[in-house]
């Protein structure tokens, strides 16, 4: 078969089978699976391409797999499963609590898909989550050679009637949990009598070097009036995504 026809046929084969099976058939098939044309076609078939993306993509096979795996790696980001998946919890004051949006003296979240948030108390409350990148499907060669972008986002807000503090710290860690790269926000202070708006904070890790195997996400805060109960910072919709 002419190669353009063969490429169109192979484009209907699942991606994993292309790499693990079809690539081993013969030298010609190996060349096609390793080449760009097949993966450009698969990306087009599944709507993964755009003009800007097409110009930036260097390895279309990697681009395809990263897009297919693209998802929020933070589990239970909005408190729908209570405190499940969150570890190393610091419960200062009356500890963490989960409330329904918009909450007392609060505002609705910008997205209708978010219904709950975590809220802190009158002493520091912190919680963290560690993401195992290999367990999530991001193999070592990909992380060491391609070093895809790791995009971190979080949302925080205060009650309109109470001031609060907020912090975010995200680490890229090695196999031995050594810190390869780190982002740490300043301590953000929201004043009393604020608007109660939800604020997004984000950071993108790039060119972080080889050896990244884990992402450790930690955030927290407290209120600044030291009122008993849950008047501290509210957080929700946290996310960590590996992107092309």
From TrEMBL:
InterPro entries in alphabetical order: F-box-assoc_dom, F-box-like_dom_sf, F-box_dom, F-box_only, Galactose-bd-like_sf
A GO cellular component entry from the record: SCF ubiquitin ligase complex
Signal listed as a keyword: yes
Any one Gene Ontology BP term: glycoprotein catabolic process
Gene Ontology molecular function: any one: ubiquitin protein ligase activity
Keywords: Signal, Ubl conjugation pathway
Domain of life: Eukaryota
Entry-linked SUPFAM superfamilies: F-box domain, Galactose-binding domain-like
Keyword Signal applies: yes
Name assigned to this protein: F-box protein 2
Organism: Sphenodon punctatus (Tuatara)
């Amino acid at each position: 078969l002419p190669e353009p026809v063969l490429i169109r046929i192979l484009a209907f084969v699942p991606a994993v089978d292309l790499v693990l099976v079809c690539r081993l058939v013969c030298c010609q098939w190996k060349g096609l699976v390793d080449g760009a044309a097949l993966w450009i076609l698969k990306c087009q078939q599944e709507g993964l391409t755009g003009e800007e993306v097409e110009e930036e993509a260097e390895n279309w096979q990697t681009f395809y797999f990263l897009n297919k795996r693209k998802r929020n790696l933070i589990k239970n980001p909005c408190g729908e499963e209570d405190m499940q998946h969150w570890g190393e919890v610091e419960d200062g004051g009356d500890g963490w609590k989960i409330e329904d949006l918009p909450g007392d003296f609060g505002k609705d979240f910008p997205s209708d898909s978010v219904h709950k948030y975590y809220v802190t108390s009158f002493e520091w409350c912190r919680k963290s989550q560690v993401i195992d990148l290999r367990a999530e499907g991001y193999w070592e060669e990909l992380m060491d050679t391609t070093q895809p972008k790791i995009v971190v986002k979080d949302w925080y807000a205060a009650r309109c009637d109470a001031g609060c503090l907020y912090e975010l710290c995200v680490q890229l860690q090695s196999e031995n949990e050594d810190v390869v790269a780190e982002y740490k926000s300043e301590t953000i202070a929201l004043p009393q009598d604020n608007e109660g708006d939800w604020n997004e904070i984000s950071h993108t890790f790039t060119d972080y070097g080889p050896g990244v195997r884990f992402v450790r996400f930690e955030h927290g805060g407290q209120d600044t009036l030291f009122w008993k109960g849950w008047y501290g910072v509210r957080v929700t919709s946290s996310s960590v995504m590996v992107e092309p």
